[in-house]
């Protein structure tokens, strides 16, 4: 039946609203080109996989080894100690005239075996070397002799010219911490919990979003409650811990990673909540510049740049990420950036990833289109893509009934969307496949966005809100990411979280912005460079045959999406008083500096300490994702209390601040080395559920709330941007929704050396939070902390208690900038690569 239905829908797929699509060229030529493209793609993938498998060796090393064996054989030496003679005996006897050929084959087989053994040895040696993490715990200026020796050996064994996946076979597996150590840390250090991760700070499947525990909750627990919780931890260690730990140890030897697959399944795919706000985050465009005001042109260049990134990804031309230039990180998450959709299920979702896709799905004014990205000659040029997007913008046809709000279903609870999708798969299979099988989703928004001169603060807040939630029905939240292009040429990205963490999409976004602006560029009139292609067929309008029972579901989904959207309070502000360079001059970690300032700001905002989450990556290990850094430590609380105590002097506060920063650094490095407690306890909890083992301690961890969720957006490819000559051409980061109904979500990015942009979110329905109020407290806290240092004495010191009114002293963040209320109609800015 399904095959018959597809056959019936075949003819409409070859038509558009403007008539039949013309197919030019001989059929044999198209068949030949299709086969050629397919074989080239498979051969390229096979060759890349082969190079990755033999790394750090190269095919030339096999040729060198074979030549050496042949030379030794010619000199009547036998490096194989008789093995080649035995190999020759096993080969078929082709007669005397082929005796020399048998010798060559024997030498080739022996060289291949020896080469494989050497490669295996190199992999094992490199894996052992990469298991050493002492270098991370040492200051750069005081590197030990052990670390220096390790570094030299890593450089020797790492080979030359690695590609993206070269180190995958050599990465160590994430260790399972000792359960005794984990519980000891629970009792002695900042608490435990799981719930947020992956560079954005909120991704728990559990509605309670469990958070840091025991010592980290000590400031908010009475002595009685704390003693009771400590007793639960000790009981767990005595009764259940050993059994659960044994299963985790067994899994760590059998699976690539003992926690990541469960994290993806139970935290993301089994969540039944809406993806909007709960499992998506956004990335912003340049803050102060817009390269062109033409919506179609910006979309053409951006889509072309994204597809160039995909091509580099397929060819493994992207170099692997190296932490501090020497330690490779896991690249597994890059595999699902493109051609990926999270498909809803009644009980759990699953991730569908295609090897290739030659079109994008486009949404504009309630209508869906399929836009091809390739011609017989390869990838469409930016100008050709602009032409296709302009045709969509100029198309006057209205949306069909209920089609306009159809995408709101992807923002509905997952169980509801799974049921409705079954009807769509039957009635509108071709249109649904065009969207879910696209390389990614493109939303052409009819309204402008971005920073404006008239009201800079409100315009930035509206920009963030539009990227995070939009109108609730103008993006397909199931897609791995949606490219959002506003009517004034501003860009943005909305990313679904389950397939990967923020640094992966951030890496792609950096490449996209740099490529579309500096390499592809725009002509003097704002269009993409090049010429249109009038032979291209019209974009295909997707037709949705929506059954009656779906109409009510769409209305309910839209109402829920609008309610959720209207409840999100977003606030974005660039902090321009100082930046990363000032913090480094103080000989401090920029991230730790910000985290301690956030503790001070939140205490002033709420008058109490709270469980705080900061995400840390565990990509030092194979298939690693994230771990929790519990920033609200006892040391941080001591510093905050001192700052609010008028009797404490600046030197006293500074001393406590340095202690708090050192503690935060220790927690961060332990998390990155696989010695955190949150993912370990999460995995123990999952095992207990499988075994039906009741643990009051794990249940208590599972039930905690997480009022403050934080994350830093890393800038990974500084070579793509010239922040000194072109300081405005830097992404302004992104943000995410709050992890708790009465909490905050805070992300930040260091824009160059002298600016930090903060993205804050909360719920309007909460009487305890206010994103703008916290933003003011963050600015005050940063100035107060900076004034503790001699270099920051010029910054005005403000000590304001919780509940104090804003003084309005925040400096205007466009005073020294030129803000485009209308984007410039000039040619491409000078290329910083020149």
From TrEMBL:
Q: Which GO terms describe its molecular function?
A: carnitine O-palmitoyltransferase activity; palmitoyl-(protein) hydrolase activity
Q: Where is the Carnitine O-palmitoyltransferase N-terminal domain?
A: 1-47
Q: Mind telling me which residue stretches traverse the membrane in this protein?
A: 50-75, 104-126
Keyword Glycosyltransferase in the entry? The reply is: no
Task: State the UniProt keywords alphabetically.
Answer: Acyltransferase, Cell projection, Endoplasmic reticulum, Fatty acid metabolism, Hydrolase, Lipid metabolism, Membrane, Transferase, Transmembrane, Transmembrane helix
EC numbers, comma separated: 3.1.2.22
Q: Which PROSITE patterns does its entry note?
A: ACYLTRANSF_C_2
Entry keyword annotation includes Transmembrane: yes
Stretches of Polar residues bias are at: 824-834
Q: Looking at the record, which segments are called Disordered?
A: 793-834
GO BP annotation list: carnitine metabolic process; fatty acid beta-oxidation; regulation of postsynaptic membrane neurotransmitter receptor levels
- What InterPro entries is this protein classified in? Carn_acyl_trans (IPR000542), CAT-like_dom_sf (IPR023213), Cho/carn_acyl_trans (IPR039551), Cho/carn_acyl_trans_2 (IPR042231), CPT_N (IPR032476)
Where is this protein localized, as stated in its record? Cell projection, Axon; Cell projection, Dendrite; Endoplasmic reticulum membrane
| Membrane topology type | Multi-pass membrane protein
Q: Which SUPFAM superfamilies match?
A: CoA-dependent acyltransferases
What reaction is this protein's catalytic activity?
S-hexadecanoyl-L-cysteinyl-[protein] + H2O = L-cysteinyl-[protein] + hexadecanoate + H(+)
Query: Taking every annotated instance into account, which residue ranges of this chain make up the domain Choline/carnitine acyltransferase?
Result: 212-779
GO annotation, cellular component aspect: AMPA glutamate receptor complex; axon; dendrite; endoplasmic reticulum membrane; glutamatergic synapse; mitochondrion; postsynapse
Catalytic residues?
A: 497
Which top-level enzyme class is recorded in the Swiss-Prot or TrEMBL entry?
Answer: hydrolase
What the protein does comes down to: Palmitoyl thioesterase specifically expressed in the endoplasmic reticulum of neurons. Modulates the trafficking of the glutamate receptor, AMPAR, to plasma membrane through depalmitoylation of GRIA1. Also regulates AMPR trafficking through the regulation of SACM1L phosphatidylinositol-3-phosphatase activity by interaction in a malonyl-CoA dependent manner. Binds malonyl-CoA and couples malonyl-CoA to ceramide levels, necessary for proper spine maturation and contributing to systemic energy homeostasis and appetite control.
The record's family statement is: Belongs to the carnitine/choline acetyltransferase family.
Instruction: Please report the name of this protein according to its UniProt entry.
Output: Palmitoyl thioesterase CPT1C
Tell me what gene encodes this: CPT1C
């Amino acid at each position: 039946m399904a095959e018959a239905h597809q056959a019936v829908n075949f003819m409409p797929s070859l038509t558009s609203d403007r008539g039949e699509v013309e197919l030019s060229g001989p059929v044999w030529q198209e068949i030949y080109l299709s086969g050629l493209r397919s074989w080239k793609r498979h051969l390229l993938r096979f060759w890349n996989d082969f190079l990755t498998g033999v790394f750090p060796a190269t095919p030339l090393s096999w040729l060198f080894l074979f030549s050496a064996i042949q030379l030794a054989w010619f000199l009547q030496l036998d490096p194989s100690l008789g093995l080649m003679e035995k190999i020759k005996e096993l080969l078929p006897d082709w007669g005397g005239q082929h005796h020399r050929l048998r010798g060559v084959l024997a030498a080739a087989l022996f060289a291949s075996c020896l080469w494989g053994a050497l490669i295996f040895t190199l992999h094992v040696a490199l894996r052992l070397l990469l298991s050493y993490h002492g270098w991370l715990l040492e200051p750069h200026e005081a590197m030990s002799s052990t670390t220096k020796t390790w570094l030299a050996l890593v450089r020797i064994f790492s080979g030359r010219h690695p590609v993206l996946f070269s180190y995958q076979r050599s990465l160590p597996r994430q260790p399972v911490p000792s359960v005794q150590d984990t519980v000891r840390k629970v009792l002695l250090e900042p608490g435990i919990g799981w719930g947020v991760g992956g560079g954005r700070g909120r991704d728990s499947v559990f509605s309670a979003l469990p958070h840091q525990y025991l010592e980290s909750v000590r400031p908010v627990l009475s002595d009685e409650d704390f003693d009771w919780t400590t007793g639960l931890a000790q009981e767990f260690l005595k009764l259940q811990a050993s059994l659960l730990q044994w299963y985790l140890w067994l899994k760590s030897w059998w699976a690539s990673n003992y926690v990541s697959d469960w994290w993806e399944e139970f935290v993301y795919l089994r969540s039944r909540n809406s993806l909007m706000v709960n499992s998506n985050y956004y990335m912003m465009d340049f803050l102060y510049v817009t390269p062109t005001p033409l919506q179609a042109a910006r979309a053409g260049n951006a889509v072309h740049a994204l597809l160039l990134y995909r091509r580099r990804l397929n060819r493994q031309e992207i170099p692997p990420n190296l932490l501090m230039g020497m330690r490779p990180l896991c690249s597994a998450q890059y595999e699902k950036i493109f051609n990926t959709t999270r498909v809803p299920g009644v009980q759990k979702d699953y991730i569908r990833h295609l090897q290739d896709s030659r079109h994008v799905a486009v949404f504009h004014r309630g209508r869906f289109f399929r836009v091809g990205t390739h011609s017989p000659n390869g990838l469409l040029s930016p100008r050709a893509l602009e032409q296709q997007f302009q045709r969509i913008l100029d198309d006057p046809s209205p949306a069909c009934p209920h089609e306009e709000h159809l995408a709101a279903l992807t923002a509905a609870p997952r169980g509801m969307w799974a049921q409705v999708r079954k009807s769509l798969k039957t009635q509108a299979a071709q249109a649904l496949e065009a969207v879910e099988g696209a390389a990614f989703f493109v939303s052409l928004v009819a309204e402008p966005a971005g920073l404006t001169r008239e009201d800079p603060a409100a315009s930035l807040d509206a920009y963030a809100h539009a990227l995070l939630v939009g109108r609730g029905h103008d993006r397909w939240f199931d897609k791995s990411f949606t490219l959002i292009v506003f009517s004034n040429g501003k860009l943005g990205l909305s990313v679904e979280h389950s397939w990967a963490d923020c640094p992966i999409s951030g890496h792609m976004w950096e490449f996209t912005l740099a490529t579309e602006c500096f390499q592809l560029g725009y002509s003097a009139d704002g269009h993409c460079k090049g010429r249109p292609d009038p032979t291209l067929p019209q974009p295909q309008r997707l037709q949705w045959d929506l059954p009656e029972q779906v109409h009510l579901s769409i209305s309910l989904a839209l109402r829920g999406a609008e309610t959720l959207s209207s409840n999100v309070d977003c606030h974005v502000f660039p902090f321009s008083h100082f930046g990363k360079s000032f913090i480094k001059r103080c000989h401090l970690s920029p991230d730790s500096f910000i985290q301690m300032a956030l503790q001070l700001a939140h205490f002033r905002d709420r008058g109490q300490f709270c469980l705080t989450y900061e995400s840390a990556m565990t990509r030092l290990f194979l298939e690693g994702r994230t771990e929790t850094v519990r920033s609200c430590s006892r040391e941080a609380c001591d510093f905050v209390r001192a700052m609010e105590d008028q009797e404490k002097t600046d030197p006293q506060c500074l001393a406590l601040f340095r202690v708090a920063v050192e503690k935060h650094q220790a927690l961060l490095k332990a998390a990155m080395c696989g010695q955190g407690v949150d993912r370990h306890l999460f995995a123990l909890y999952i095992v207990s559920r499988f075994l039906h083992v009741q643990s009051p301690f794990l249940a208590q961890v599972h039930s905690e709330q997480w009022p403050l969720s934080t994350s830093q957006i890393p800038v990974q490819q500084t070579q793509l941007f010239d922040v000194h000559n072109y300081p405005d051409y830097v992404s302004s980061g992104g943000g995410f929704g709050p992890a708790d109904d009465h909490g905050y979500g805070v992300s930040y990015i260091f824009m160059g050396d002298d600016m930090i942009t903060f993205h804050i979110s909360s719920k309007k329905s909460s009487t305890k939070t206010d994103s703008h109020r916290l933003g003011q407290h963050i600015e005050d806290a940063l100035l107060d902390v900076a004034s503790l240092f001699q270099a920051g004495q010029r910054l005005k010191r403000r000590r304001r208690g919780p509940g104090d009114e804003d003084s309005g002293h925040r400096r205007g963040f466009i005073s020294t900038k030129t803000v485009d209320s209308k984007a410039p109609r000039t040619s491409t800015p000078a290329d910083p690569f020149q």
